[in-house]
Design a protein that fits this description.
70 residues; mainly alpha; 0% strand
Length: 70
């Protein structure tokens, strides 16, 4: 069940980015950059690279793969 919840959360993050981009590929690139930037800021706040729980990095990888597919 936990695995499924993570997938739903990851999909929601991607769906919000897709909604804001309105099908524009340049805007999707900007949304991806925004997700990566936000993640980096959170990571820095918690001590830098590798400081977050494994689930956070799994989420980022999952969201990135959704961007790759679309």
């Amino acid at each position: 069940r936990r695995q499924r919840q993570m997938c739903i959360r990851d999909r929601r993050i991607f769906d919000i980015a897709k909604l804001f981009s309105d099908g524009d590929s340049e805007m999707m690139d900007m949304m991806r950059s925004a997700v990566l930037s936000a993640f980096s800021q959170v990571e820095s706040s918690f001590g830098g690279s590798g400081s977050l729980p494994k689930q956070a990095y799994d989420m980022l990888n999952s969201v990135n793969s959704l961007f790759d597919k679309n």
